[in-house]
Amino acid sequence: MAAAQLIVALDVSSSAEAERIVASLGNAVQIYKVGMQLYTAEGPPIVRDLVASGKSVFLDLKYHDIPNTVGAAVREATKLGVSMLTVHAAGGTKMLKVAAEAAKENPSSNLAVLAVTVLTSMDEEQLKETGVSGQLLDQVLRLGSLAIQAGCAGVVSSAHEVKALRAKLGNAFLAVTPGVRPAGTAHGDQARVVTPAEAISSGATHIVVGRPITAATDPVAEAEKILKAIA
After folding, report:
1. Would you call 104 a catalytic residue per the annotation?
2. Closest to 5 (Cα-Cα) out of 78, 61, 84
């Protein structure tokens, strides 16, 4: 169960680096995040290679555009065989609905569309700079509600907000939490950080961990430590 909840972020700039990480982790990790950095550098082939090797891919490109464009992108993602992808909940109900519907059009795909609420790198002051008044939690709940009502399979938020999302929206959706750091590790550019155990106990179904594993001297040992914390 724990292995199905850990997503390792391949935040690198080449397929060679990504392949080295995947090979070093072996069977310890099943799900990998391909984000903007790696996808921009290597494109769809890196996704196809991961899927062909038996790994699951979380495509984290955070689509945020007019509904027609987002829907077309989601359809292409179903052809790549990705398991999860992200859109921005701030794109609004129509965009979210189109994305969720597009994910279901391919009968050979089981793609879960996840809506990003507020980036885990942001704090309340930074959110206010974007013109959003009120508390950060209120914005997460507002966008999370839009996403689930529009048919998205889940949301992406800090674990700090997952309990409130569960209280408002129930348990029938995926809750993916970035900004997860094992105790004692650097926070990097993340503002709202929790440990793996805290994320899962708050109601997260998946956690995303990057540098603490990929930059570790012994990546397998670090991954196994996190899996134990999840369990």
Report:
1. no
2. 84
Give the whole-angstrom CA distance, residue 176 versus residue 155.
Answer: 6
- Specify the CATH superfamily of domain 2-230: Aldolase class I (3.20.20.70)
From the candidates 62, 79, 104, 128, give the one annotated as an active-site residue.
62
Q: Which residues pair with 32 in a beta bridge?
A: 8, 57
The reported pTM is: 0.93
Q: How far apart are alpha carbons 50 and 31 in whole angstroms?
A: 9
Query: What is the number of alpha carbons within 13 Å of residue 173 lying toward its C-beta?
Result: 28
d(CA 181, CA 197): 10
Note the residue count of the chain. 231
- 8 A C-beta contact, residue 101 and residue 151: yes
Mean pLDDT value across the chain: 93
pLDDT digits (tens, 9 = 90+) for 106-123: 999 999 999 999 988 888
Question: Which pLDDT value is given to residue 190?
Answer: 47
User: Do 112 and 82 contact (CB within 8 A), yes or no?
Assistant: no
